Amino acid sequence: MKGNDSSAEKLENERHFHQTAKQPQLKPTPPPRKKGKLKSQAFREAMTGYFFLAPALVLLGVFLLYPMGAAFYYSFTDFYILTPDDVSFIGLENFKYIVEDAQFRQAFWNTVYFSVIVVPVQLSVALGLALLINKKLRFRVFFRTAFFSPVVMSLVVVSILWTFMYNPNEGLINQLLQTVGIPPQPFLTSPDQAMNSIIVMSVWQGAGFQMMIFLAGLQNIPNHLYEAADIDGASSWQKFWHITLPGLRNIALFIFITISIAAFKLLVQPMIMTQGGPLGTTKSLVYHIYETGFNYRDVGYASAMAVVFTVIVLVITIIQRVLIKEERG
Amino acid sequence: MRKKRMINKFTLYLSLVILTFIFLFPLVWMLVSSLKNEFQIFRDMQSLQAFLPPAPADVEGGYFHNYVAAFQRVDLLRYIINSLIYTIGIITFGLIVNSMAGYALARFRFPLAGFWLGVIIATLIIPPESIFLPLYVLVYDLGWVNTYTGLIVPFIANAFAIFLFRQFFLDFPKELEEAAKIDGCSQIGIFFRIIVPLSKPVFATVAIVLFINHWNDFLWPLVVASDESMRTIQIGLQYFMNEPPIKWGQVMAALTVATIPMLLIFAFLQRYYVQGLTHTGSKN
User: Fold this and answer.
1) Which end of chain A is more exposed for a tag (fewer CB within 10 A), N or C?
2) Hey, is the C-beta of B20 within 8 angstroms of any chain A C-beta?
Protein backbone atom coordinates (compact mmCIF):
# COMPACT_ATOMS: atom_id res chain seq x y z
CA MET A 1 0.00 0.00 0.00
CA LYS A 2 1.18 3.46 -0.79
CA GLY A 3 1.30 6.01 2.01
CA ASN A 4 -0.20 9.45 1.74
CA ASP A 5 3.14 11.16 1.84
CA SER A 6 4.49 9.70 -1.32
CA SER A 7 1.27 10.02 -3.26
CA ALA A 8 1.06 13.68 -2.31
CA GLU A 9 4.58 14.04 -3.52
CA LYS A 10 3.62 12.35 -6.73
CA LEU A 11 0.70 14.68 -7.27
CA GLU A 12 3.07 17.55 -6.62
CA ASN A 13 5.32 16.23 -9.33
CA GLU A 14 2.40 15.85 -11.64
CA ARG A 15 1.26 19.38 -11.01
CA HIS A 16 4.75 20.47 -11.75
CA PHE A 17 4.44 18.90 -15.18
CA HIS A 18 1.13 20.55 -15.78
CA GLN A 19 2.73 23.84 -15.00
CA THR A 20 5.80 23.46 -17.13
CA ALA A 21 3.64 22.35 -20.00
CA LYS A 22 1.18 25.17 -19.69
CA GLN A 23 3.39 27.89 -18.37
CA PRO A 24 4.21 29.63 -21.61
CA GLN A 25 0.52 29.84 -22.26
CA LEU A 26 0.07 31.88 -19.10
CA LYS A 27 3.32 33.77 -19.19
CA PRO A 28 3.09 36.31 -21.99
CA THR A 29 1.54 39.44 -20.56
CA PRO A 30 -1.58 40.44 -22.44
CA PRO A 31 -0.49 43.08 -24.93
CA PRO A 32 -1.82 46.59 -24.37
CA ARG A 33 -4.71 47.13 -26.71
CA LYS A 34 -3.55 50.38 -28.13
CA LYS A 35 -0.30 48.92 -29.41
CA GLY A 36 -0.89 47.81 -32.99
CA LYS A 37 -2.65 44.71 -34.22
CA LEU A 38 0.53 42.77 -35.03
CA LYS A 39 1.55 41.99 -31.48
CA SER A 40 -1.89 40.93 -30.36
CA GLN A 41 -2.13 38.71 -33.39
CA ALA A 42 1.16 37.02 -32.50
CA PHE A 43 -0.08 36.58 -28.96
CA ARG A 44 -3.32 35.05 -30.13
CA GLU A 45 -1.45 32.69 -32.43
CA ALA A 46 0.72 31.57 -29.51
CA MET A 47 -2.36 31.03 -27.36
CA THR A 48 -4.04 28.94 -30.04
CA GLY A 49 -0.83 27.01 -30.63
CA TYR A 50 -0.55 26.07 -26.99
CA PHE A 51 -4.24 25.31 -26.80
CA PHE A 52 -3.75 22.70 -29.53
CA LEU A 53 -0.49 21.36 -28.17
CA ALA A 54 -1.16 21.37 -24.42
CA PRO A 55 -3.18 18.13 -24.05
CA ALA A 56 -0.49 16.06 -25.73
CA LEU A 57 2.32 17.78 -23.84
CA VAL A 58 0.66 17.28 -20.47
CA LEU A 59 -0.04 13.61 -21.17
CA LEU A 60 3.48 12.95 -22.45
CA GLY A 61 4.88 14.78 -19.46
CA VAL A 62 2.87 12.87 -16.88
CA PHE A 63 2.91 9.39 -18.41
CA LEU A 64 6.24 9.29 -20.21
CA LEU A 65 8.73 11.87 -18.97
CA TYR A 66 7.72 11.67 -15.31
CA PRO A 67 8.02 7.83 -15.19
CA MET A 68 11.35 8.17 -16.96
CA GLY A 69 12.59 10.51 -14.24
CA ALA A 70 11.04 8.32 -11.56
CA ALA A 71 12.86 5.24 -12.88
CA PHE A 72 16.09 7.17 -12.69
CA TYR A 73 15.34 8.28 -9.13
CA TYR A 74 14.21 4.83 -7.95
CA SER A 75 17.40 3.30 -9.32
CA PHE A 76 19.35 5.03 -6.52
CA THR A 77 16.95 3.88 -3.79
CA ASP A 78 15.87 0.66 -2.09
CA PHE A 79 12.22 1.24 -3.07
CA TYR A 80 10.33 -1.97 -2.32
CA ILE A 81 6.63 -2.06 -3.24
CA LEU A 82 5.51 -3.53 0.07
CA THR A 83 7.24 -0.80 2.10
CA PRO A 84 6.74 2.36 0.06
CA ASP A 85 7.12 4.66 3.07
CA ASP A 86 10.54 3.38 3.90
CA VAL A 87 12.53 4.45 0.87
CA SER A 88 16.11 5.47 1.40
CA PHE A 89 18.80 6.67 -0.92
CA ILE A 90 21.46 4.02 -1.36
CA GLY A 91 23.67 5.60 -3.99
CA LEU A 92 25.14 3.21 -6.51
CA GLU A 93 24.38 0.00 -4.57
CA ASN A 94 21.85 -1.22 -7.17
CA PHE A 95 24.28 -0.64 -9.99
CA LYS A 96 27.06 -2.41 -8.12
CA TYR A 97 24.75 -5.35 -7.66
CA ILE A 98 24.04 -5.50 -11.41
CA VAL A 99 27.70 -6.28 -12.00
CA GLU A 100 27.55 -9.21 -9.56
CA ASP A 101 24.12 -10.50 -10.56
CA ALA A 102 24.65 -13.76 -12.47
CA GLN A 103 21.02 -13.76 -13.60
CA PHE A 104 21.40 -10.31 -15.09
CA ARG A 105 24.52 -11.40 -16.93
CA GLN A 106 22.78 -14.47 -18.31
CA ALA A 107 19.72 -12.44 -19.36
CA PHE A 108 21.98 -9.87 -20.99
CA TRP A 109 23.89 -12.43 -23.07
CA ASN A 110 20.69 -14.27 -23.97
CA THR A 111 19.28 -11.01 -25.31
CA VAL A 112 22.48 -10.24 -27.20
CA TYR A 113 22.48 -13.74 -28.71
CA PHE A 114 18.85 -13.39 -29.78
CA SER A 115 19.45 -9.96 -31.35
CA VAL A 116 22.69 -10.83 -33.10
CA ILE A 117 21.01 -13.73 -34.86
CA VAL A 118 17.52 -12.38 -35.43
CA VAL A 119 18.57 -9.03 -36.90
CA PRO A 120 20.63 -10.21 -39.90
CA VAL A 121 18.50 -13.30 -40.54
CA GLN A 122 15.20 -11.43 -40.49
CA LEU A 123 16.61 -8.61 -42.58
CA SER A 124 17.86 -10.98 -45.27
CA VAL A 125 14.73 -13.12 -45.26
CA ALA A 126 12.61 -10.00 -45.67
CA LEU A 127 14.83 -8.71 -48.48
CA GLY A 128 14.87 -12.11 -50.18
CA LEU A 129 11.09 -12.38 -50.09
CA ALA A 130 10.69 -8.85 -51.43
CA LEU A 131 13.07 -9.57 -54.33
CA LEU A 132 11.28 -12.82 -55.18
CA ILE A 133 7.90 -11.12 -55.17
CA ASN A 134 8.99 -7.99 -57.02
CA LYS A 135 8.73 -9.67 -60.42
CA LYS A 136 6.02 -10.23 -62.92
CA LEU A 137 4.50 -13.34 -61.44
CA ARG A 138 1.32 -15.24 -61.60
CA PHE A 139 -0.50 -15.20 -58.25
CA ARG A 140 1.81 -12.43 -57.04
CA VAL A 141 -0.81 -11.02 -54.65
CA PHE A 142 -1.44 -14.49 -53.27
CA PHE A 143 2.24 -15.08 -52.48
CA ARG A 144 2.61 -11.62 -50.97
CA THR A 145 -0.42 -12.15 -48.75
CA ALA A 146 0.87 -15.57 -47.68
CA PHE A 147 4.25 -14.20 -46.58
CA PHE A 148 2.58 -11.31 -44.80
CA SER A 149 -0.10 -13.36 -43.04
CA PRO A 150 1.86 -14.20 -39.84
CA VAL A 151 2.07 -10.47 -39.15
CA VAL A 152 -1.68 -10.43 -38.75
CA MET A 153 -1.43 -12.64 -35.67
CA SER A 154 -0.34 -11.10 -32.41
CA LEU A 155 2.89 -12.15 -30.76
CA VAL A 156 0.85 -13.78 -27.99
CA VAL A 157 -1.23 -15.82 -30.44
CA VAL A 158 1.85 -16.87 -32.37
CA SER A 159 3.73 -17.80 -29.20
CA ILE A 160 0.90 -20.00 -27.94
CA LEU A 161 0.39 -21.58 -31.36
CA TRP A 162 4.08 -22.43 -31.75
CA THR A 163 4.31 -23.78 -28.21
CA PHE A 164 1.83 -26.44 -29.29
CA MET A 165 3.61 -26.93 -32.60
CA TYR A 166 6.92 -27.35 -30.77
CA ASN A 167 5.45 -29.85 -28.31
CA PRO A 168 8.15 -32.58 -28.11
CA ASN A 169 5.74 -35.53 -28.00
CA GLU A 170 2.64 -34.56 -29.92
CA GLY A 171 3.63 -31.35 -31.68
CA LEU A 172 2.96 -30.76 -35.34
CA ILE A 173 6.58 -30.01 -36.22
CA ASN A 174 7.92 -33.27 -34.82
CA GLN A 175 5.17 -35.15 -36.63
CA LEU A 176 6.16 -33.45 -39.89
CA LEU A 177 9.86 -34.14 -39.24
CA GLN A 178 9.11 -37.80 -38.61
CA THR A 179 7.46 -38.20 -41.99
CA VAL A 180 10.75 -36.97 -43.52
CA GLY A 181 12.69 -39.39 -41.31
CA ILE A 182 14.11 -36.92 -38.78
CA PRO A 183 13.92 -38.04 -35.13
CA PRO A 184 11.80 -35.95 -32.71
CA GLN A 185 13.49 -32.87 -31.31
CA PRO A 186 13.06 -31.50 -27.76
CA PHE A 187 12.76 -27.86 -28.97
CA LEU A 188 11.61 -25.62 -26.11
CA THR A 189 12.45 -28.17 -23.43
CA SER A 190 16.14 -28.31 -24.27
CA PRO A 191 18.61 -25.64 -23.11
CA ASP A 192 20.42 -25.97 -26.44
CA GLN A 193 17.40 -25.58 -28.67
CA ALA A 194 14.96 -23.37 -26.76
CA MET A 195 16.37 -19.98 -27.78
CA ASN A 196 16.92 -21.08 -31.37
CA SER A 197 13.33 -22.29 -31.53
CA ILE A 198 12.16 -18.87 -30.36
CA ILE A 199 14.39 -17.25 -32.97
CA VAL A 200 12.93 -19.31 -35.82
CA MET A 201 9.41 -18.40 -34.74
CA SER A 202 10.25 -14.71 -34.36
CA VAL A 203 11.72 -14.46 -37.85
CA TRP A 204 8.74 -16.33 -39.26
CA GLN A 205 6.36 -13.92 -37.58
CA GLY A 206 8.14 -10.67 -38.39
CA ALA A 207 9.75 -11.00 -41.82
CA GLY A 208 6.56 -10.34 -43.80
CA PHE A 209 6.25 -6.92 -42.24
CA GLN A 210 9.68 -5.77 -43.37
CA MET A 211 9.11 -7.42 -46.74
CA MET A 212 6.29 -4.94 -47.36
CA ILE A 213 8.58 -1.99 -46.58
CA PHE A 214 11.28 -3.40 -48.87
CA LEU A 215 8.70 -3.86 -51.63
CA ALA A 216 7.74 -0.20 -51.40
CA GLY A 217 11.43 0.69 -51.57
CA LEU A 218 11.98 -1.50 -54.64
CA GLN A 219 9.14 0.24 -56.44
CA ASN A 220 10.81 3.59 -55.80
CA ILE A 221 13.93 2.62 -57.74
CA PRO A 222 13.55 4.22 -61.16
CA ASN A 223 13.11 1.69 -63.92
CA HIS A 224 15.32 3.54 -66.40
CA LEU A 225 18.37 2.60 -64.33
CA TYR A 226 17.70 -1.07 -65.09
CA GLU A 227 17.00 -0.30 -68.74
CA ALA A 228 20.28 1.55 -69.05
CA ALA A 229 22.08 -1.36 -67.39
CA ASP A 230 20.43 -3.77 -69.84
CA ILE A 231 21.76 -1.72 -72.76
CA ASP A 232 25.23 -1.88 -71.23
CA GLY A 233 24.83 -5.66 -71.01
CA ALA A 234 24.96 -5.89 -67.22
CA SER A 235 24.31 -9.29 -65.64
CA SER A 236 21.44 -9.60 -63.19
CA TRP A 237 23.96 -9.99 -60.37
CA GLN A 238 25.63 -6.70 -61.40
CA LYS A 239 22.25 -4.99 -61.56
CA PHE A 240 21.43 -6.22 -58.08
CA TRP A 241 24.79 -5.11 -56.66
CA HIS A 242 25.00 -1.71 -58.35
CA ILE A 243 21.38 -0.59 -58.63
CA THR A 244 19.07 -2.50 -56.30
CA LEU A 245 21.21 -2.57 -53.17
CA PRO A 246 22.26 1.11 -53.26
CA GLY A 247 18.65 2.05 -53.96
CA LEU A 248 17.51 0.18 -50.88
CA ARG A 249 20.27 1.33 -48.56
CA ASN A 250 18.30 3.88 -46.56
CA ILE A 251 15.32 1.61 -46.13
CA ALA A 252 17.56 -1.29 -45.15
CA LEU A 253 19.25 0.84 -42.51
CA PHE A 254 15.89 2.00 -41.19
CA ILE A 255 14.70 -1.61 -40.94
CA PHE A 256 18.00 -2.60 -39.36
CA ILE A 257 17.47 -0.07 -36.56
CA THR A 258 13.86 -1.03 -35.92
CA ILE A 259 14.58 -4.77 -35.83
CA SER A 260 17.59 -4.33 -33.54
CA ILE A 261 15.63 -2.30 -31.02
CA ALA A 262 12.62 -4.60 -31.19
CA ALA A 263 14.90 -7.62 -30.73
CA PHE A 264 16.49 -6.11 -27.66
CA LYS A 265 13.05 -5.72 -26.10
CA LEU A 266 12.41 -9.47 -26.32
CA LEU A 267 9.81 -10.43 -23.70
CA VAL A 268 6.54 -11.97 -24.86
CA GLN A 269 7.96 -15.07 -26.54
CA PRO A 270 10.00 -16.41 -23.58
CA MET A 271 7.35 -15.32 -21.08
CA ILE A 272 4.67 -17.39 -22.79
CA MET A 273 6.65 -20.23 -24.32
CA THR A 274 9.30 -21.11 -21.74
CA GLN A 275 8.94 -18.82 -18.70
CA GLY A 276 12.63 -18.08 -19.24
CA GLY A 277 13.69 -21.71 -18.96
CA PRO A 278 15.08 -24.29 -19.35
CA LEU A 279 17.86 -23.30 -16.94
CA GLY A 280 17.35 -19.61 -17.70
CA THR A 281 18.53 -20.04 -21.28
CA THR A 282 15.68 -17.96 -22.69
CA LYS A 283 15.37 -15.33 -19.99
CA SER A 284 15.69 -11.92 -21.62
CA LEU A 285 16.73 -8.61 -20.14
CA VAL A 286 13.23 -7.12 -20.09
CA TYR A 287 11.87 -10.36 -18.67
CA HIS A 288 14.39 -10.23 -15.83
CA ILE A 289 13.43 -6.60 -15.13
CA TYR A 290 9.75 -7.55 -15.16
CA GLU A 291 10.26 -10.40 -12.71
CA THR A 292 12.38 -8.32 -10.36
CA GLY A 293 9.84 -5.50 -10.34
CA PHE A 294 6.50 -7.25 -10.44
CA ASN A 295 7.18 -10.66 -8.91
CA TYR A 296 9.88 -9.79 -6.37
CA ARG A 297 8.67 -6.19 -6.02
CA ASP A 298 12.17 -4.85 -5.85
CA VAL A 299 11.42 -1.60 -7.69
CA GLY A 300 14.78 -0.02 -6.87
CA TYR A 301 16.87 -2.78 -8.39
CA ALA A 302 14.49 -3.30 -11.32
CA SER A 303 14.68 0.44 -12.07
CA ALA A 304 18.47 0.34 -12.03
CA MET A 305 18.37 -2.45 -14.61
CA ALA A 306 15.76 -0.50 -16.61
CA VAL A 307 18.14 2.47 -16.66
CA VAL A 308 20.96 0.26 -17.91
CA PHE A 309 18.59 -1.23 -20.51
CA THR A 310 17.58 2.25 -21.70
CA VAL A 311 21.21 3.29 -21.99
CA ILE A 312 21.96 0.19 -24.08
CA VAL A 313 19.05 0.92 -26.41
CA LEU A 314 20.13 4.55 -26.70
CA VAL A 315 23.69 3.54 -27.51
CA ILE A 316 22.49 1.14 -30.22
CA THR A 317 20.30 3.86 -31.71
CA ILE A 318 23.02 6.49 -31.64
CA ILE A 319 25.68 4.22 -33.14
CA GLN A 320 23.36 3.26 -35.95
CA ARG A 321 22.29 6.85 -36.58
CA VAL A 322 25.92 7.90 -36.78
CA LEU A 323 26.65 5.07 -39.23
CA ILE A 324 23.76 6.19 -41.42
CA LYS A 325 24.95 9.79 -41.42
CA GLU A 326 28.48 8.74 -42.32
CA GLU A 327 27.29 6.68 -45.23
CA ARG A 328 25.11 9.47 -46.47
CA GLY A 329 27.78 12.11 -46.11
CA MET B 1 18.48 -20.93 -73.79
CA ARG B 2 14.77 -21.47 -73.73
CA LYS B 3 15.15 -24.65 -71.73
CA LYS B 4 17.28 -22.81 -69.21
CA ARG B 5 14.60 -20.18 -68.83
CA MET B 6 12.00 -22.88 -68.26
CA ILE B 7 14.13 -24.40 -65.52
CA ASN B 8 14.64 -21.00 -63.94
CA LYS B 9 10.93 -20.38 -63.94
CA PHE B 10 10.27 -23.80 -62.49
CA THR B 11 12.71 -23.28 -59.59
CA LEU B 12 11.27 -19.83 -58.96
CA TYR B 13 7.73 -21.11 -58.61
CA LEU B 14 8.85 -24.16 -56.69
CA SER B 15 10.62 -22.02 -54.13
CA LEU B 16 7.60 -19.72 -53.91
CA VAL B 17 5.36 -22.69 -53.21
CA ILE B 18 7.71 -24.05 -50.55
CA LEU B 19 7.93 -20.63 -48.92
CA THR B 20 4.16 -20.28 -49.02
CA PHE B 21 3.88 -23.59 -47.21
CA ILE B 22 6.36 -22.46 -44.55
CA PHE B 23 4.55 -19.20 -43.95
CA LEU B 24 1.03 -20.56 -44.07
CA PHE B 25 1.05 -24.02 -42.49
CA PRO B 26 0.80 -22.86 -38.85
CA LEU B 27 -2.14 -20.61 -39.71
CA VAL B 28 -3.94 -23.27 -41.71
CA TRP B 29 -3.32 -25.85 -39.00
CA MET B 30 -4.73 -23.47 -36.37
CA LEU B 31 -7.89 -22.76 -38.36
CA VAL B 32 -8.49 -26.36 -39.37
CA SER B 33 -7.78 -27.82 -35.93
CA SER B 34 -10.22 -25.41 -34.32
CA LEU B 35 -12.95 -27.34 -36.16
CA LYS B 36 -11.86 -30.82 -35.08
CA ASN B 37 -12.22 -32.81 -31.89
CA GLU B 38 -9.16 -33.89 -29.91
CA PHE B 39 -9.01 -37.37 -31.40
CA GLN B 40 -9.12 -36.03 -34.96
CA ILE B 41 -6.43 -33.43 -34.26
CA PHE B 42 -3.90 -36.02 -33.06
CA ARG B 43 -4.83 -38.63 -35.63
CA ASP B 44 -4.63 -36.17 -38.54
CA MET B 45 -1.21 -34.85 -37.51
CA GLN B 46 0.36 -38.03 -38.92
CA SER B 47 -0.61 -37.02 -42.45
CA LEU B 48 -1.49 -34.11 -44.69
CA GLN B 49 -4.99 -34.44 -43.32
CA ALA B 50 -3.65 -32.11 -40.59
CA PHE B 51 -4.18 -29.22 -43.02
CA LEU B 52 -7.61 -30.22 -44.26
CA PRO B 53 -10.92 -29.51 -42.56
CA PRO B 54 -12.73 -32.49 -41.02
CA ALA B 55 -14.96 -34.46 -43.36
CA PRO B 56 -18.63 -33.51 -42.86
CA ALA B 57 -19.40 -37.06 -41.76
CA ASP B 58 -16.76 -36.79 -39.05
CA VAL B 59 -18.22 -33.73 -37.40
CA GLU B 60 -20.10 -34.17 -34.16
CA GLY B 61 -21.88 -31.32 -32.48
CA GLY B 62 -21.37 -28.87 -35.33
CA TYR B 63 -18.23 -27.41 -36.90
CA PHE B 64 -17.92 -24.82 -34.17
CA HIS B 65 -18.20 -27.01 -31.08
CA ASN B 66 -14.74 -25.89 -29.88
CA TYR B 67 -15.75 -22.25 -30.17
CA VAL B 68 -18.91 -22.85 -28.17
CA ALA B 69 -16.92 -24.71 -25.52
CA ALA B 70 -14.24 -22.03 -25.37
CA PHE B 71 -16.79 -19.26 -24.88
CA GLN B 72 -18.50 -21.30 -22.18
CA ARG B 73 -15.33 -22.11 -20.31
CA VAL B 74 -14.13 -18.56 -19.79
CA ASP B 75 -15.72 -15.22 -20.48
CA LEU B 76 -14.04 -14.75 -23.85
CA LEU B 77 -16.70 -12.28 -24.91
CA ARG B 78 -15.84 -10.10 -21.91
CA TYR B 79 -12.14 -10.19 -22.85
CA ILE B 80 -12.94 -9.18 -26.42
CA ILE B 81 -15.14 -6.31 -25.25
CA ASN B 82 -12.37 -5.18 -22.89
CA SER B 83 -9.87 -5.26 -25.74
CA LEU B 84 -12.25 -3.26 -27.92
CA ILE B 85 -12.85 -0.64 -25.20
CA TYR B 86 -9.11 -0.41 -24.63
CA THR B 87 -8.16 -0.03 -28.30
CA ILE B 88 -11.09 2.13 -29.36
CA GLY B 89 -10.58 4.37 -26.32
CA ILE B 90 -6.96 4.93 -27.21
CA ILE B 91 -7.82 5.51 -30.88
CA THR B 92 -10.63 8.00 -30.18
CA PHE B 93 -8.76 10.17 -27.70
CA GLY B 94 -5.46 9.57 -29.48
CA LEU B 95 -6.76 10.87 -32.82
CA ILE B 96 -8.04 14.08 -31.22
CA VAL B 97 -5.07 14.83 -28.98
CA ASN B 98 -2.34 13.86 -31.43
CA SER B 99 -3.88 15.49 -34.50
CA MET B 100 -4.27 18.73 -32.55
CA ALA B 101 -0.65 18.59 -31.44
CA GLY B 102 0.53 17.77 -34.95
CA TYR B 103 -1.49 20.67 -36.31
CA ALA B 104 -0.06 23.08 -33.73
CA LEU B 105 3.48 22.06 -34.63
CA ALA B 106 2.82 22.30 -38.35
CA ARG B 107 0.93 25.60 -38.47
CA PHE B 108 1.40 27.97 -35.55
CA ARG B 109 4.33 30.07 -34.60
CA PHE B 110 4.73 30.26 -30.85
CA PRO B 111 7.56 30.42 -28.34
CA LEU B 112 9.38 27.11 -27.81
CA ALA B 113 7.60 25.37 -30.71
CA GLY B 114 10.87 23.95 -32.01
CA PHE B 115 11.89 22.86 -28.54
CA TRP B 116 8.66 20.91 -27.99
CA LEU B 117 8.98 19.25 -31.38
CA GLY B 118 12.48 18.15 -30.39
CA VAL B 119 11.24 16.82 -27.05
CA ILE B 120 8.43 14.87 -28.71
CA ILE B 121 10.75 13.30 -31.26
CA ALA B 122 13.27 12.48 -28.51
CA THR B 123 10.61 10.59 -26.54
CA LEU B 124 10.35 8.19 -29.49
CA ILE B 125 13.66 6.70 -28.38
CA ILE B 126 12.49 5.89 -24.83
CA PRO B 127 11.67 2.16 -24.79
CA PRO B 128 8.23 1.78 -23.17
CA GLU B 129 9.52 -1.35 -21.44
CA SER B 130 11.86 0.75 -19.33
CA ILE B 131 9.13 2.92 -17.82
CA PHE B 132 6.46 0.32 -17.09
CA LEU B 133 7.38 -0.09 -13.46
CA PRO B 134 7.25 3.60 -12.43
CA LEU B 135 4.21 4.05 -14.68
CA TYR B 136 2.52 1.26 -12.77
CA VAL B 137 3.41 2.91 -9.44
CA LEU B 138 1.93 6.18 -10.74
CA VAL B 139 -1.27 4.56 -11.99
CA TYR B 140 -1.53 2.70 -8.68
CA ASP B 141 -1.24 5.95 -6.73
CA LEU B 142 -3.92 7.51 -8.90
CA GLY B 143 -6.20 4.61 -8.00
CA TRP B 144 -6.48 3.52 -11.63
CA VAL B 145 -5.44 -0.12 -11.34
CA ASN B 146 -8.07 -2.39 -12.88
CA THR B 147 -9.90 0.49 -14.55
CA TYR B 148 -10.28 1.42 -18.20
CA THR B 149 -8.85 4.82 -17.32
CA GLY B 150 -5.64 3.18 -16.15
CA LEU B 151 -5.45 1.10 -19.31
CA ILE B 152 -6.17 3.92 -21.75
CA VAL B 153 -5.03 7.32 -20.49
CA PRO B 154 -1.26 6.70 -20.33
CA PHE B 155 -1.20 5.80 -24.04
CA ILE B 156 -3.37 8.54 -25.55
CA ALA B 157 -0.51 10.88 -26.39
CA ASN B 158 1.72 9.19 -28.94
CA ALA B 159 4.84 10.87 -30.27
CA PHE B 160 4.85 8.81 -33.45
CA ALA B 161 1.25 9.76 -34.24
CA ILE B 162 2.00 13.43 -33.57
CA PHE B 163 4.92 13.18 -35.97
CA LEU B 164 2.79 11.56 -38.70
CA PHE B 165 0.07 14.20 -38.33
CA ARG B 166 2.60 17.02 -38.43
CA GLN B 167 4.14 15.68 -41.66
CA PHE B 168 0.70 15.47 -43.22
CA PHE B 169 -0.43 18.95 -42.15
CA LEU B 170 2.81 20.53 -43.36
CA ASP B 171 1.86 19.54 -46.91
CA PHE B 172 -1.71 20.73 -46.47
CA PRO B 173 -2.53 23.80 -48.65
CA LYS B 174 -2.82 26.95 -46.53
CA GLU B 175 -5.25 28.73 -48.85
CA LEU B 176 -8.33 26.89 -47.58
CA GLU B 177 -7.65 27.90 -44.00
CA GLU B 178 -7.05 31.50 -44.97
CA ALA B 179 -10.32 31.65 -46.85
CA ALA B 180 -12.16 30.30 -43.83
CA LYS B 181 -10.41 32.80 -41.59
CA ILE B 182 -11.64 35.64 -43.75
CA ASP B 183 -15.14 34.20 -43.45
CA GLY B 184 -14.79 34.63 -39.69
CA CYS B 185 -14.28 31.00 -38.72
CA SER B 186 -12.39 30.44 -35.44
CA GLN B 187 -9.15 28.43 -35.39
CA ILE B 188 -10.89 25.56 -33.61
CA GLY B 189 -13.72 25.69 -36.11
CA ILE B 190 -11.24 25.69 -38.99
CA PHE B 191 -9.49 22.64 -37.59
CA PHE B 192 -12.51 20.50 -36.86
CA ARG B 193 -14.71 21.59 -39.77
CA ILE B 194 -12.20 21.99 -42.58
CA ILE B 195 -8.91 20.26 -41.81
CA VAL B 196 -10.19 17.08 -40.20
CA PRO B 197 -12.73 16.15 -42.91
CA LEU B 198 -10.09 16.70 -45.59
CA SER B 199 -7.45 14.59 -43.81
CA LYS B 200 -9.16 11.22 -43.76
CA PRO B 201 -6.18 9.25 -45.10
CA VAL B 202 -3.83 10.27 -42.29
CA PHE B 203 -6.53 9.72 -39.66
CA ALA B 204 -7.20 6.27 -41.09
CA THR B 205 -3.50 5.41 -41.13
CA VAL B 206 -2.95 6.51 -37.54
CA ALA B 207 -6.12 4.76 -36.38
CA ILE B 208 -5.01 1.48 -37.94
CA VAL B 209 -1.46 1.71 -36.60
CA LEU B 210 -2.87 2.39 -33.12
CA PHE B 211 -5.37 -0.44 -33.41
CA ILE B 212 -2.75 -2.99 -34.42
CA ASN B 213 -0.30 -1.91 -31.72
CA HIS B 214 -2.79 -1.89 -28.90
CA TRP B 215 -4.94 -4.85 -29.87
CA ASN B 216 -1.73 -6.86 -29.57
CA ASP B 217 -0.57 -5.19 -26.35
CA PHE B 218 0.54 -7.60 -23.69
CA LEU B 219 2.69 -6.14 -20.93
CA TRP B 220 0.59 -3.14 -19.88
CA PRO B 221 -2.77 -4.96 -19.72
CA LEU B 222 -1.02 -7.80 -17.92
CA VAL B 223 0.11 -5.59 -15.05
CA VAL B 224 -2.74 -3.06 -14.89
CA ALA B 225 -5.73 -5.29 -15.62
CA SER B 226 -4.98 -8.09 -13.18
CA ASP B 227 -8.63 -8.51 -12.27
CA GLU B 228 -10.37 -11.21 -14.30
CA SER B 229 -13.23 -8.93 -15.37
CA MET B 230 -10.71 -6.42 -16.78
CA ARG B 231 -8.56 -8.84 -18.78
CA THR B 232 -7.98 -8.19 -22.45
CA ILE B 233 -8.10 -11.00 -24.98
CA GLN B 234 -4.31 -11.32 -25.26
CA ILE B 235 -4.08 -11.98 -21.52
CA GLY B 236 -7.19 -14.16 -21.41
CA LEU B 237 -5.79 -16.51 -24.07
CA GLN B 238 -3.17 -17.80 -21.68
CA TYR B 239 -5.87 -19.46 -19.61
CA PHE B 240 -6.42 -22.11 -22.28
CA MET B 241 -2.73 -22.82 -22.36
CA ASN B 242 -2.12 -23.02 -18.62
CA GLU B 243 -5.29 -24.31 -16.96
CA PRO B 244 -5.93 -28.05 -17.27
CA PRO B 245 -7.62 -29.78 -18.93
CA ILE B 246 -5.78 -28.45 -21.97
CA LYS B 247 -7.90 -29.03 -25.04
CA TRP B 248 -6.02 -28.35 -28.25
CA GLY B 249 -9.19 -27.70 -30.23
CA GLN B 250 -10.33 -25.05 -27.78
CA VAL B 251 -6.90 -23.42 -27.77
CA MET B 252 -6.99 -23.14 -31.55
CA ALA B 253 -10.55 -21.78 -31.46
CA ALA B 254 -9.58 -19.11 -28.92
CA LEU B 255 -6.49 -18.15 -30.93
CA THR B 256 -8.61 -17.83 -34.06
CA VAL B 257 -11.13 -15.63 -32.28
CA ALA B 258 -8.32 -13.33 -31.10
CA THR B 259 -7.02 -13.04 -34.67
CA ILE B 260 -10.30 -12.28 -36.43
CA PRO B 261 -10.40 -8.50 -35.73
CA MET B 262 -6.87 -8.11 -37.08
CA LEU B 263 -7.78 -10.20 -40.10
CA LEU B 264 -10.75 -7.95 -40.84
CA ILE B 265 -8.61 -4.82 -40.48
CA PHE B 266 -6.05 -6.14 -42.92
CA ALA B 267 -8.62 -7.46 -45.36
CA PHE B 268 -10.45 -4.16 -45.70
CA LEU B 269 -8.01 -1.45 -44.71
CA GLN B 270 -4.67 -2.82 -45.84
CA ARG B 271 -4.25 0.03 -48.31
CA TYR B 272 -4.08 2.65 -45.55
CA TYR B 273 -1.79 0.50 -43.47
CA VAL B 274 0.70 -0.04 -46.26
CA GLN B 275 0.57 3.68 -47.07
CA GLY B 276 1.43 4.42 -43.47
CA LEU B 277 4.27 1.93 -43.52
CA THR B 278 5.85 3.20 -46.69
CA HIS B 279 5.44 6.75 -45.46
CA THR B 280 7.41 6.05 -42.31
CA GLY B 281 9.92 4.00 -44.25
CA SER B 282 10.72 6.71 -46.75
CA LYS B 283 10.62 9.61 -44.30
CA ASN B 284 13.22 8.07 -42.09
Assistant:
1) C
2) yes
